[in-house]
Amino acid sequence: MVHNRLSENYALLKGFVKNTPLEPGVYIWRDSENRIIYVGKARALRNRLNSYFAITKNVKTAALIRNSKTIETIIVSNEYEALLLENTLIKQHSPKYNINLKDGKTYPVVRITADKFGRVFRTRRIVEDGSLYFGPFPNVQALDKTLALIEKTFTLRKCRTFKPRKSPCLYYHIGRCLAPCCGKVEEDAYNIQVERIRKLLAGETSALIIDLTGQMHEAARSLKYEEAASIRNTIHAIESLSETNSVEDMDSESRDYIAWASEGIFTTFSVISMRGGRMTGQELFSSRSAAEEHESIMTFLVAYYSPDRIPPPKVFISHGFAGPGTGSETGSDAEDDNSALNRYFQEQFGQIPEFIMPDDSERRHAAALAMAAHNAREELRRRLKERGVGPALDELKQVLSLSSRPECIEGFDISHLEGKHPVASLISFRNGNPDRKNYRHFKLKTVIGKIDDYAALREAVQRRYSRQIRENKELPDLILIDGGLGQVNAVKTVLAELGVDCDLASLAKREEEIWLPHAKTPIKLPERSEALKVLQYIRDETHRFATALNTNLRSKELCFPILESVDGIGPKRAATLMKHYGSLEKIAAAEAEEIAEKCSLKISAAKAARAAARLALEDRLAKKDRLNAKFAAKKASEEAALAAEAFAAEDKIDY
User: Fold this and answer.
1) How far apart are the first and last CA of the chain?
2) How distant is the alpha carbon of residue 326 from its chain centre?
3) Whole-model pTM above 0.70?
4) Which of 17, 117, 138, 297 can pair with 49 through a Cys bridge, CB separation 3.0 to 4.6 Å?
5) Nearest-CA neighbor of 370 among 247, 274, 259, 242?
6) Is the CB of residue 60 less than 8 Å from the CB of residue 69?
7) How far apart are CA 30 and CA 65, in angstroms?
8) Contact 596, 602 (CB under 8 A)
9) What's the pLDDT tens digit per position in 519-575?
């Protein structure tokens, strides 16, 4: 019995790992009493967690799996954030299978002292004296380069204690200090430099990077390559230092970040808590609700905050919330809801938290909310995958009045460029998931050089199902066409001729209308309908698959590599050029200004593209001339040989 329970738990843990994303983050193992027993970090969560279930497990790993009940993951932006969060969680929870870090080591921060004529330096110790702190910075090398830049660029005092002096020190004479101790600079002028350093450390670096980039290019033009390389390294250090860190900062004010993801009636909420400048963890909550988004959020806030979970002074909310303090315009119903929410918080907690929806300019808060939203989406994706698409297929059968549950669905789409390279894609879905081994492409033969989607669909469908019938293979439960009533009726005619009795529908892109054969009106499903989501997934996959082959065929004939060889033009811009002009000849004949305007290119790139097209045409013409010359020489040689043979034969004639 015990062995069976362990085997079952092992399978559950391994099943969870299978659906874990390949992204950086932290993973948390919990025991049967929900206690954290191990915390780890990973560059790719799924790969790292899979390693725990390898055949050759050591004793510690086996014990960890045996004593674990669940695994949680928190996705972050990069490995540094994973390192910081792992460090925080280990110190907070002291998991039994983690190394006990006795030294309590922390990452360095930068301090700007609060005293008169403040100074800037690196430290690991925080003193509550009004000083400004920035960090923490896991990338110590980048931090050192930035501090060296600050020391070189800004002439602040170097002495630890500010004391009036009669004569300045050596730093003043070499231009590395303003000598405030000798009254050589006013406090306001000195503080201007301090403010510039504050902006640099706060990530407001755009103007500085632009200036340094100009200096780097100027040094390179003057052949001062070592100086240019040094400036380049400084720019990289600043960019590395100014990356937004979502798991630790120097803001000690308590705050929560709440985001969510929805699919149909399913919603997952993600709450990230910051306390004392550190992310103390994440909580995920799943619910089923048919309510509108605003109502669902209000219900969650009331349920989440309780006497055991007091709301912090600030709660940052992602999209769609028109609550009190967000500054959003609200109608009378929303205002009534806000009034009730205010009253609830005031009566329950004696305070009303400030609800904030930050914009993109508030980088730190926007980044934290983005991380919360990403985790909510991943949890919702995992939850829906575990649940399966059975209910969605049942809904599809009901709303389309299908003869059976559509467990096998095949979709068709057509792709071409003004009649050139017409291709059809066939994709297969089984139980709501892609069945890629049964994907097919059809290079169409009857519609070359003309645009006729109906004929193209008829050819693809006829070729597909005539072969299926001939080889006695399985037919789908439902065929989905990308298009409207005309397309679905065209396919219905072919199926009738073949004697194929399959359910058939089409999905039109613009209004997401579902058409059945010979219908007078389309079927419109709610935006959150699970059945509609399945059809959209299939339709988008058929389009992607058809476009991929069509693009590949066009690339070979339309000389995309020639355009892509131009600096600043990649596959997408090359495709845009060919879409607008259709041939290298037309690109070569166009004005550079026209190319730049039509294809959203810089004038330099447009000129380069035109030059590349002309050069390719010249090469093509030269190659053609060489072939013609070779052919003419061969023909002349053959004619000369024939003439010689004729002359020799004539000599043999006996007159």
Assistant:
1) 117
2) 27
3) no
4) 17
5) 259
6) no
7) 10
8) yes
9) 889 999 887 788 888 898 888 888 888 766 655 555 445 556 677 777 778 877 877
